[in-house]
Write a structure and sequence with these properties.
- This protein is elongated.
- A five-stranded antiparallel beta sheet has the order 1-2-3-4-5, covered by helices on one side.
- It contains one helix and five strands.
- 30% of the residues lie in helices and 29% in strands.
- β4 and β5 form a beta hairpin.
- It has one domain.
- It is an alpha+beta fold and 113 residues long.
């Protein structure tokens, strides 16, 4: 192992971790924009990799799925999953699709910038 190999490995690791952090921040931006446009307050959210209702074959690796809990103006809380981004452009698009835990689905395309 040469002296440069550990430097390259550290660089690649930092790049992958940084890219993942950036991707989740873009998904969070979509979540916040979606919530504001639909008069929801974000109570909590976490990234979900497995075990969401969108299924493995329905979403692409460029999309991020968040488990969300939001509160409306009347104080009622709803929970569900928000799929951020389009199939091809991922989180670089402003598309959002929510599946509520009560079984209903809402799709929101091209949120206002």
């Amino acid at each position: 192992m040469s002296v440069n190999e550990p430097v390259v490995i550290v660089f690649i690791l930092c790049f992958v971790l940084g890219w993942n952090f950036y991707y989740v921040r873009l998904a969070e931006r979509i979540l916040r924009r979606w919530a504001a446009e639909h008069d929801f307050e974000v109570v909590s959210f976490t990234r979900v990799v497995f075990g969401h209702p969108f299924g493995f074959m329905i979403n692409s690796r460029s999309q991020v799925v968040l488990s969300i809990t939001v509160r409306d103006r009347k104080g009622r809380e709803r929970s569900g999953w928000l799929k951020c981004g389009s199939f091809w452009a991922g989180v670089f698009s402003n598309e959002a699709q929510v599946k509520w835990r009560d079984g209903t689905t809402d799709r929101f395309d091209a949120l206002e910038s």
